[in-house]
Amino acid sequence: MNAVVLASGGLDSTVTAAVARQEGWDLYLLTVLYGQRHQVEVACAKNVAAWVEAKDHKVLTLDLSVFGGSALVGDGAVPKNRSEQDRGGGIPVTYVPARNTVFLSLALAFAEVVQAQSIFIGANVLDYSGYPDCRPEFLQAFQEVARLGTKLGLEGRAVKIHAPLLQMSKAQIIQRGRELGVPFEMTHSCYDPDEAGMSCGQCDSCLIRLEGFRQAGREDPIPYQVQ
Q1: CATH numbers and ranges of domains, the chain
Q2: What is the pLDDT of residues 61-71, one digit of tens each?
Q3: Is the pTM of this model over 0.85?
Q4: CB within 8 A of 190, min separation 6: which ones?
């Protein structure tokens, strides 16, 4: 059984890949280099692909920075040291317009080529409630797109969208990763690392990750500029 995994090199997508591997899927990883500030993730994704013994790992360049509209592609500053309350209000400036729609479309094309029955994505609605493309309604709607708009779907073999971490807290995700032996030191989550790739420790993603490790009673193995 083949499955495509959207692999950013981040914590959530790595745990998602580990879940898919445990379930017995043969993994085909897809990483998108989309003009993001945090391109160190791509190197992490390559290491993760080797760790999960992926059958193939595609790194595709599709520069969404030409559109702008997001702090992640250099259009404005990445917010730092926001409170949990602030992080929970509205759609953050780190939202990349239609990113998961684009990524899932690319994964769907890859899935058709390798005859994959499933696509795995590390979407999480609890930690990223401000992102509209991480909601269950969106993923369900995209699955219908996959059924209607592909050869596999017309043949009655529609690709299924799996988001195994969707309703889990960051601490629960970390605990699940520990159970699966995930090498967290290989992962990267920061939105605004320095030139050497070191995580800032102050952006929303770093804060959520660090809080998750604390709540899980574990120490994050990666270095930070500020912690």
Answers
A1: 2-215 (3.40.50.620)
A2: 999 999 999 99
A3: yes
A4: 38, 198, 199, 200, 201, 203, 205, 206
